[in-house]
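Hello, quick one for you while I still have it in my head. No rush at all, and the record is pasted right below.
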Amino acid sequence: MPNDNTAPTGLFTDDSQVTRCVWCRATPDYQHYHDHEWGVPVQNDERLFEKICLEGFQAGLSWLTILKKREAFRQAFAEFDMDRVAAFDEADITRLVLDAGIVRHRGKIVSTINNARRAQALRQEFGTLAAYFWQFEPAASTRPDQITHQSLSGMTTSAESIALSKDLRKRGWSFVGPTTMYAFMQAMGMVNDHLEGCGARDRALTARAAFQPPKATVSRGPAASVASD
């Protein structure tokens, strides 16, 4: 979850009397992202691939910085079409390092191309990226009874995000640490960390109730991975 500890409740109410998680207070675009994207279940492979890549670029930066550059990232990385990104070569790396619209970190750029190739392998094995990732959705019994600023305080990983990170690293992915994977799971609706009292929380819950997680072609049983950590 983006970090903002300036409000004791973790919430703020705007002039229109809309209450939101305080981390999105900075700009209207940030609030739109909070209201309509963050925590809403995602099945589309390009969106999942985009988000896991952008979470990697965020390392050491704020999500707001990445969000402001998201359209430039999409143009630079072929709308995060994994097949097109997987075909990028040294000339593309040079082009991207010179692109002022994105984060010009050579290691993260190379990682994104590598991860596109690893994503192709996941798709071949599981049918879709969504089928793979949604295996790691936490059971409701592992979540706090109430999602509050206090219950989430200090929660930057989970057993499931650790298991996901471990499995991806075994498969050759990079910039997919447990904290990065927890942020990915929050954003993609695998956990709903909108706080109690946030106006977007119920919308995310309704969206999850209507969502049917895709089935993997081959079940890897992430619960076993969690249990072994």
Observations:
- The chain has one domain: 11-228.
- Residues 106-126 form the longest helix (21 residues).
